[in-house]
Amino acid sequence: MRYLSTRGGMLPKTFTEILLGGLAPDGGLAMPESYPKISPAELESWRSLDYPSLAFEILSRFMDDIPADDLRTLITRTYTDEIFGSEEVTPVQTLESNLHLLHLSNGPTLAFKDIAMQFLGNLFEYVLAKNNDELNILGATSGDTGSSAEYAMRGKRGIRVFMLSPYGKMSAFQTAQMFSLQDNNIFNIAIEGVFDDCQDIVKTVSNDQVFKQKYRIGAVNSINWARIAAQIIYYFKAYFAVTRSNGEAVSFSVPSGNFGNIFAGHVARMMGLPIKQLILATNENDVLNEFFRTGLYRPRTTTETKQTSSPSMDISKASNFERFIFDLTGRDAARIKELWKLVDQGGSFDLSDTDLWKKIRDFGIISGTSNHAERITTIRKIHHKFNILIDTHTADGLKVGMELREPDVPLICLETALPVKFADSIQEAVGFVPEQPDGYDNLEKLPQRFERMTADAEQVKRFIAHQVGPSNQMHG
Ligand SMILES: *Cc1c(COP(=O)(O)O)cnc(C)c1O
């Protein structure tokens, strides 16, 4: 399997060659040259596989330059009962006939990002050791991504994480989750400012090519192809859980932000999984809903981006969306270059009067949006009807999914975080706070380890240089 750029300016590369890079050199995103097609017979033979075996079947098709035995080891080390709370890893719960909840949030940080990130941690460690290299991950977070990355990379050889977060602006639970880590390869940097200040510092440091090269600076953002690939697995797993034969189709509803999760569903569908609809749900930040309803893609400015009670979906533009449009154009890199020239200049594009818009139905994605009042009502209703608690993001997905589903097609709603992470909204909806899962009850009382800094990229650079510096190198 070779990888190309959505903008056509990258020579074909292998999986491990694109693994540690961010954007392609031409500013595009890496894409497999084609999607592996799964025949009906193969699909049938996958039905009885456990999670690690199914993961191997899928990932080995995308990561074919990793020796099969090594890949199998990385997978079996990642997808365990111990890390994900059950051997099923992503169990499906049936709420009523044709309505199911796919639990994706039983990893260490209680959000779905763990599923891909835990694998990425093992994969990075393996590839870095093989190349006798090291990586210093620099990121900015306002919550889920940062903690998921830290829990995936903690204690990994050859990797350090420098994670910037806005001082005093994350929830107590999220802060405790990150700052209580005592591993000496994890560095929490609390910036006196807001999330955008953190992100600006990351950009400034990453744009300094000399520094970036010298200190092996990298990222683990949602455009990483390995993260997409690892998210394809649970679409297959859930499909097998709710159907008896491959003649049946299902639909999924997906709370969406950067378009990573639902894009993995799109890939599963392109591979041959019988998915009828992929129902995309946004919150008040409805960039993607606007596109799928009207054909207009208009990324927002940061001041237009609202802070909501489903914060992990508060996006101004959707990083992985370019990959979908690449497929929509029939993989026309010249056209992507044209469209994203507009986007990169802060503009927008409108496909409504084009040939492409006529084809969009073939891709099965439909969309809807939800707001704070609706997610609170959904949490309350679901609790009342099924006696379970869902978090705010999952509520957006359920709200839109129930609105748009076809009555006779089983709907699988993706649960993307546990309610305990968003206790205030749960309190508002049902009048009590969710129970802490086992092992988390003491979290907020643990000692915290972090550096506090002003919003100054030079100070962050000095800190990284000091930690990495020659006397501190991990390998010889
Ligand atoms: C990241 C995240 C999302 C959005 O997923 P994308 O892949 O960015 O679309 C939804 N819910 C939760 C809880 C998340 O952490």
From TrEMBL:
EC class (word): lyase
Keyword Lyase among record annotations: yes
Modified residues (N6-(pyridoxal phosphate)lysine): 113
Coiled coil: none
Cofactor(s) this protein cannot do without: pyridoxal 5'-phosphate
InterPro entries: Thr_synth_N, Thr_synth_N_sf, Thr_synthase-like, Threonine_Synthase, TrpB-like_PALP, TrpB-like_PALP_sf
Entry's EC annotation: 4.2.3.1
Keywords: Lyase, Pyridoxal phosphate
Threonine synthase N-terminal domain mapped to chain residues: 2-79
Tryptophan synthase beta chain-like PALP domain mapped to chain residues: 95-329
Top-level taxon in the UniProt lineage: Bacteria
Database matches in Gene3D superfamilies: 3.40.50.1100, Threonine synthase, N-terminal domain
GO MF annotation list: threonine synthase activity
Record's keyword annotation contains Magnesium: no
NCBIfam families listed in its UniProt record: thrC
Family: Belongs to the threonine synthase family.
Name of the molecule in the record: Threonine synthase
